[in-house]
Write a structure and sequence with these properties.
Strand order of the largest sheet: 1-2
Distance between the termini: 24 Å
Helix content: over 70%
Structural class: mainly alpha
Number of helices: 11
Radius of gyration: 20 Å
Number of strands: 2
Shape: globular
Amino acid sequence: MYKQSADRKETWKTIFIFLAIATFLSSIFHYAIVNLYPSSIYIGGLMWCPAIAAILTLKLRGGSISSLNWSVGNWKYIRLSYFVPALYVIITYAIIWFLGFGDFATKELIMEWAKELGLVGIGTLNPTVALFIAVILLGTVGVIRAMATTLGEEIGWRGFFIYELRKVLSFTGVSIFSGIIWAAWHWPLIFYYGDNVLLEFVTFFIVIISMSFIMTYYTFKSKSLWPAVIFHAVSNVYIQKILPEITIKIKGTEHWHGENGIMFAIVTFFFGIYYLRKAVKEKV
């Protein structure tokens, strides 16, 4: 009993060290993002802070970087980590279109989007073909590019943090605790960039904690950090760069759209509940 108590105490100490380092490093980039221009160049640095914090914590606590589950694991979860986040974003915007909170883009807007992506001028291009090419490129090349930064977050959050939490908490506890920390880590960005800060703060926490259940499930089942890296990248690309671009916002319904929107929070909440029930049933 004493040994178990001592082990739990050491685990919580490791968790505290990780969070302290991550907070210190992240605060530097949060300051830069809020106060320096252009702020976008500091986003990548911020997203690598959890990885650096994990590596430093391992060094301080005598751990090994090789313990971070670098193997690909089961390809089933690699595939699911792409299709599930794409699916919940598509469902989100399908409901928005159906309920009249937004409209599918006109041919003119699709061609404007294609022009911004550099697709116009490469030959005869109609809106349908332009849309198809844009989605394929962003869904592949865009996702690979996004993985360069989501890898930094996931080395820290899913590669290290949730495995430490697993030593002292249940699957549900790990998912909720890590989700709250992950969401809170973003709060300066929500405060600075948000239009309706209170609403977006609530919806964002629901989204992130719901995603945490899914990503924790995939990480533990696959014994790999790569499903979480891919999942995070795909989710970002589809909710930030694809579906909003082919949606016309209707005045007064803006709060239903985007990654901080009400509809995305509702849809991801139900996905999170499904994976919570699945994990409990499978005793993950």
